[in-house]
Amino acid sequence: MDRTESNEIAEMSPERDKAIRLLMYLKDLCALRTTQVRNVKTFDQVFWLSDLPHHRLCRSAIWHLTDPPSPTSGQHVDPWIEIRKPALKSPPELPDELEPWIKDEELTDSSLSEPGFYEQIPLLALQGDSGNTDPNTLASINDYPHVFDKWVNYVEEWKPWADEDRELQKVQKAYNQLFNIYQRQEKLGNSMRLLSGLDFSCGHRRTVGRSSAISLPSKRESNLTESEE
Predict the structure, then answer these.
(1) CA distances from 82 to 2, 143, 169 (A)
(2) Which residues does 94 contact at the CB level (< 8 Å), separation at least 6?
(3) Which pLDDT belongs to residue 23?
(4) What does the pLDDT read at residue 182?
(5) CA nearest to 58, candidates 40, 81, 32
(6) By the 8 A CB rule, do 141 and 119 touch?
(7) Distance of CA 121 to the CA centre of its chain
(8) Quick one: three-class SS letters along 197-224?
(9) Complete DSSP assignment for 19-61
(10) What is the pLDDT of residue 171?
(11) CA separation, residue 32 to residues 21, 37, 82, 118 (Å)
(12) Which of 66, 44, 55 is nearest to 175 (CA)?
């Protein structure tokens, strides 16, 4: 309490003086009992709300602070975080003729612009078990133009799947992080402290440690649900 505050209190009535001193005491007591977290470097897990994808399977009340309200939003109040588990789909079915040529590990990797193919494969992969074929003989895709055409057509089907899967993978990653935090909280109970924090360091890149942040205890409540899709 500074000198100005002391002078103002001295001029007040005894009843008001007691009330203000009581409020100040409670305020100081609350500050002593509350640990202000200004650095998350020592936290086991940190989830940034900015990492929550803006996807139909996700909702967050914090978005209303940065995004203009939707005309259909009405008076509905969103939870702090709500996320539905995405229903991931497999890529389009691969034609049998393409199977020996396509790189399997890239077929399900939606981060790629397109799945790769082998320019050469063992001829045995096309002819099956044949005693007359040298196992070292290679077949070139240049000798199978119809196969290359099928690959081009398949990629046109694969790209829309990849575009959707990339977005769903972001949701899946956020879901996995939050579900892991939820499971640990359920297992550890009160020995695990869950906090919600706000960052006020405008105009700076996000870092692990922050000095201009405040944190509050979070309610133990799950808004992780299975997708109905």
Answers:
(1) 45, 53, 16
(2) 102, 107, 154
(3) 85
(4) 85
(5) 81
(6) yes
(7) 39
(8) EEECCCCCCCCCCCCCEEEEECCCCCCE
(9) HHHHHHHHHHHHHHHS------TT-S----GGGS--STTEE-G
(10) 95
(11) 16, 13, 33, 66
(12) 55
Closest CA to 137 of 125, 146, 119, 153: 125
Which one, of 154, 1, 227, 41, lies nearest residue 10 by Cα? 1
Asked if 116 and 101 count as a contact pair (C-beta separation under 8 A), the reply is no
Name the burial class of residue 80, with classes exposed (0-12), middle (13-18) and buried (19+) by CB atoms within 10 angstroms of its CB: middle
Amino acid residing at 107: L
Structure tokens at 100: 């020996």
Q: What is the pLDDT of residue 118?
A: 92
Kindly give the parts of the chain with pLDDT less than 50.
9, 203-217, 220
SS3 track for 68-96? CCCCCCCCCCCCCCEEEECCCCCCCCCCH
Q: How many residues comprise the chain?
A: 229
How open is the CA angle 218-48-40, to the nearest 5 degrees?
Answer: 75
Residue 18: CB atoms within 10 A of its CB come to 12
What is the reported pTM? 0.65
Whole-number Å distance between alpha carbons of 170 and 54:
10
